[in-house]
Amino acid sequence: MLRPSRSRLRLGGALLLLLAGCGGELDSPGEALRLFSSSLDPAFVGEAYSFDLVVTGGLAPYRFELQGGSLPPGVTLQNGTLSGVPTREGRFDFSVSVSDARLSRTVQDFSLEVTTPPPAELVLNVPPTEVRDVVTVPISVRGGRNLQALRTQLRWNDARFELVPGSVRAARGNLALLQRAQAGELSVDVAFLGPALTGDAQLFTFDLRPVQPSTLRLTARTEYRTRDGEHGFSAAEAGTEPVEEAEVEEAEQGAPEPEPDPTEEDDTTGGSDPEDGGGL
To answer: Segment Disordered: which positions (predicted)?
Structure first.
């Protein structure tokens, strides 16, 4: 009759202990199953969207299902991830259920806002203090989305600053510039050569020469065009306009005289002073 060796007995005992420990974990209730995500990131029409729903507690694997309501057209729920390209604006309310390996189940309501992408923003970088010498002004764009071209019109006080001829320079090699200038104004068309721009980028710089020491105020009106043919518009301003000395003098001269206080004694009526003995 064959008897198991001691080494085999020890190995079998270790396996039984390991399985017993795993069984204890499987049988323990642990943390309750719930969806940790409470709010969703906004989505934009025509742009790829992805958001992972976070589950806490329960026992993996998890199973996700759309319980009620409707997702935005173009967006689907797969393995706990909302993804796709929304094709319509609006607010979409829906419920998602999740169940785990213990057949526990929970449901949570969500709301996803789909809007038109906001236009890009032109960033004007001007000195915050008085300018006494030629200054280089960098112009950049922020938040571009599939941007193919833009046209911007920049303006400043021509009595205080003049454009340095030939100073408009592209900041990148993949940009084409077309410029037109007159007193106090610079219009620049920018075309992105090759791939469209998504994100932030510096566009061009130009130099202004002060006619007299002054602070600089710059305004811009910009039209954007995407590769898909969509248009957007934005306005921007930066810096401060100096207060003219004439305006300060006019404000000081135009200040109203203070009204006399009726409670004060009037010494101009010719009345006698009791201390000087009267009038006679």
So the answer is: 219-280
Structural domain range at position 63: 34-115
If asked whether residues 148 and 229 sit together in one domain, one would say yes
Which range, of 85-94, 114-123, 181-190, 268-277, averages the lowest pLDDT? 268-277
The Cβ-side half-sphere exposure at 185, using a 13 Å CA radius, reads 7
Measuring CA to CA, which residue among 143, 114, 141 is closest to residue 47?
114
pTM of the model: 0.62
Bridge partners, 178 (sequence order): 189
What is the C-alpha separation between 228 and 185, in angstroms, rounded? 30
Q: How crowded is the C-beta side of 275, counted as CA atoms within 13 Å?
A: 0
Name every residue whose Cβ is closer than 8 Å to that of residue 70 and which is 6 or more positions away in sequence: 92, 94
Nearest one of 217, 170, 207 to 192, comparing CA atoms: 170
Helix, strand, coil share (%) of the chain residues, nearest 5: 10, 45, 40
Euclidean distance between CA atoms 254 and 206, whole angstroms: 41
Number of domains in the chain: 2
Q: What are the φ and ψ backbone dihedral angles of 175, each rounded to 5 degrees?
A: -115, 140
The mean predicted confidence, pLDDT, of the chain is: 84
